[in-house]
Amino acid sequence: MSDTKILIVEDELLIAKGLSRKLKKLGYTVIDIVSSGTKAIQRATEVKPDLILMDIVIKGDIDGIETATQIHEQLGIPVVYLTAYADDQTLDRAETTGSYGYILKPFKDRELHATIKMALKKHQQQADVQQSLLKTQVFSEEKSQLLSMVAHDIRNPLTTIQGSSEILQYYQHKLTEEKQVKHFERIQFAIDNINQMLEDILILGKTGARKLSFEPIPLNALAFCQSILEQFQSTTKQHQLTFCSQKECSQTYLDGKLLSHILANLLSNAIKYSPEGGNIHLEVCGDEQQMIFRVRDQGIGIPPEYQAKLFEQFERADNVGKIPGTGLGLCIVKQAVDLHQGTITMESELGVGTTFTVVLPVLKGDGEMGS
User: Fold this and answer.
1) What structural domains does the chain harbor?
2) Tens of pLDDT along 20-33?
3) CA atoms within 13 A of residue 71's CA, in its CB half-sphere
4) Bridge pairing between strands 5-9 and 29-34
5) What predicted TM-score, i.e. pTM, was given to this entire model?
6) Using an 8 Å Cβ cutoff, are 349 and 318 in contact?
7) 111-165 pLDDT, tens digit each
8) What sign has the CA pseudo-torsion 12, 17, 22, 23?
9) What whole-number distance in Å separates Cα of residue 146 and Cα of residue 291?
């Protein structure tokens, strides 16, 4: 209880000092005594008390009720009124300010203590409800934003699929084999794009529901990375994907699913944001304490002003143009890295390329961090 700080607003000094002694005896901390509404607002702003005991009739241009109204609106600090009388009109006016109760003079220890405890509890409950409502509102807004963005982004690959399939359906006999293959590739690329969007949404849903778990298993990191790299190489002819590694770091304990999310998103971004093609490198190295995965591209780069919010949901840089995406991939990567208790860093230069470096602690066979 000694942590509860109380400000007394009372223009009768003897009454205020008597009240202060009672509060200290009950275990509360009295941080100040003031006699006017203006001074009360000033001190409340400066010291941020947990509770204010406010006399209704005080010195100055504004009474206790008006003072409490301003404090409630500006600072959200709970106020309990002190009064020698409690006529209906005064109580009705006090109620409109969001009062947390009132105490009649002369003060009795038991009533004083009970009213303060109830006021603090009511304030905490209201704060909890407000926080819950805020979280619900944020979740609802994020869900609406996600659905709107996905509907918009899926429409583009669906248009591609529809256009190329209609051309193949009605004009296939007039197309060269090369042009037919090109349309099939456009369809496949569009399907892959949709699949990636849906995968990102499902993963994000699991992280929001705390269902994304960390389950390390024995893993040959080199073979694992080579397999993923080969899958991505088969999806592009414009890019040359290369792999560099240290053989001695091949066997380790990591979560294969999470590592797949990390590498797949980083490689997908490297390809996507290198529209002119070029080399993409995946490097793996490590020792007994950590594994390092580095993905480097020669793409469009990331603007400096965007880099601070790189891992936030729905965020995409201004220079992506018409390149499709939901802005969820790097958010998923960050959460997968965090579950490994690892780190991710980025270096980028516009028009030159981007390098992401992921460092994951090496685990022992029993799932504990290596030393």
Assistant:
1) 5-107 (3.40.50.2300), 133-208 (1.10.287.130), 217-361 (3.30.565.10)
2) 999 999 999 999 99
3) 34
4) parallel
5) 0.50
6) no
7) 888 888 888 888 888 888 888 877 777 666 666 665 665 665 576 678 888 888 9
8) positive
9) 33
Residue found by looking up tokens 């999470």 in the block: 258
Which residues lie across from 54 on neighbouring strands?
9, 81
Report the amino acid identity of residue 180. Answer: Q
Digit-coded pLDDT (tens) for 249-270? 667 888 888 898 899 889 988 9
Residues 200 and 329: beta-carbon distance below 8 Å: yes
Q: Are 101 and 15 in contact (CB under 8 A)?
A: no
Helices 109-171, 13-25: axis angle to 10 degrees equals 70
**Cα dihedral sign, 77-78-82-87:** positive
3-class secondary structure per residue, the chain? CCCCEEEEECCCHHHHHHHHHHHHHCCCEEEEEECEHHHHHHHHHHHCCCEEEEECCCECCCCHHHHHHHHHHHHCCCEEEEECCCCHHHHHHHHCCCCCCEEECCCCHHHHHHHHHHHHHHHHHHHHHHHHHHHHHHHHHHHHHHHHHHHHHHHHHHHHHHHHHHHHHHHHHHCCHHHHHHHHHHHHHHHHHHHHHHHHHHHHHHHHCCCCCCCCEEEEHHHHHHHHHHHHHCCCCCEEEEEEECHHHCEEEECHHHHHHHHHHHHHHHHHCCCCCEEEEEEEEECCCEEEEEEECCCCCCCHHHHCCCCCCCCCCHHHCCCCCCCCHHHHHHHHHHHCCCEEEEEEECCCEEEEEEEEECECCCCCECC
Least Cα distance to 44 among 64, 20, 15, 24 occurs for 64
pLDDT beyond 80 at 65: yes
Q: Please write the tens of the pLDDT for every residue from 187-211.
A: 887 787 777 667 766 766 655 544 5
**CA-wise closest residue to 54 among 111, 69, 24, 46:** 69
